[in-house]
User: Which sequence fits this backbone?
């Protein structure tokens, strides 16, 4: 039972264009959401997060949007660069003692030069 | 800081053998997490410790898996006996306080292949 779903396994975009990575969740208790980025042979690294009290958080070329009513979030990368090619994991948790992250399966992004 | 350190980076073993994966968290971090990554299931949390105490082991697949954290700077994940379906990349991560919105820092992973 996947509580965090990344339904598209891969995405390919042209350098300079926008990349939009989608994520859906089913547990309404989740109130904090994160994106992690993973290069081959490395561990995931934190990219950006958003609390459920917000609907948008921006950090440079990366913006995360949250639609609580639809239980949907998305990561926008503008402009996309070849170095952004990686696996992107969406994760969610409910904030509280002994909480834990629930990850999606990941999306492989390829940015073509 | 060296980050989270995992060893070995690669492990190839035969079915039925015991496998021990090791993790050294970032100094000063007091929560440690073990994850398994597979194509089918993505990143799954196996177990996590807070102040060396196991808090949630509901993700441990079965009794063949066990984890220990004898002190703040070392943890092991053991599989005995190993099976081909255990083949995956195993990650260790640590965080600074409890898991309440703190960023988890991942190690490079151990790629386990069970033949």
Assistant:
């Amino acid at each position: 039972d996947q509580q965090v779903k990344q339904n598209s396994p891969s995405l390919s975009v042209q350098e300079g264009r926008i990349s939009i990575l989608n994520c859906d969740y089913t547990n309404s208790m989740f109130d904090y959401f994160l994106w992690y980025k993973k290069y081959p042979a490395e561990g995931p690294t934190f990219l950006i997060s958003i609390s459920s009290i917000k609907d948008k958080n921006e950090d440079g070329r990366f913006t995360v949007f949250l639609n609580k009513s639809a239980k949907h979030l998305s990561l926008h990368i503008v402009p996309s660069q070849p170095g952004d090619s990686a696996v992107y994991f969406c994760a969610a948790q409910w904030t509280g003692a002994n909480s834990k992250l629930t990850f999606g399966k990941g999306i492989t992004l390829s940015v073509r030069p | 800081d060296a980050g989270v350190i995992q060893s070995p980076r690669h492990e190839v073993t035969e079915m039925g053998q015991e496998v021990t994966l090791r993790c050294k968290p970032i100094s000063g971090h007091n929560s440690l997490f073990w994850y398994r990554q597979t194509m089918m299931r993505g990143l799954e949390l196996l177990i996590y410790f807070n102040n060396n105490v196991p808090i949630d082991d509901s993700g441990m697949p079965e009794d063949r898996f066990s984890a220990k954290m004898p002190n703040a700077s070392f943890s092991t994940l053991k599989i005995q006996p190993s099976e081909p379906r255990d083949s995956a990349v195993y990650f260790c991560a640590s965080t600074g306080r409890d898991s309440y919105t703190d960023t988890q820092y991942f190690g490079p992973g151990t790629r386990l292949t069970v033949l």
In short: The mean pLDDT of chain A is 94.
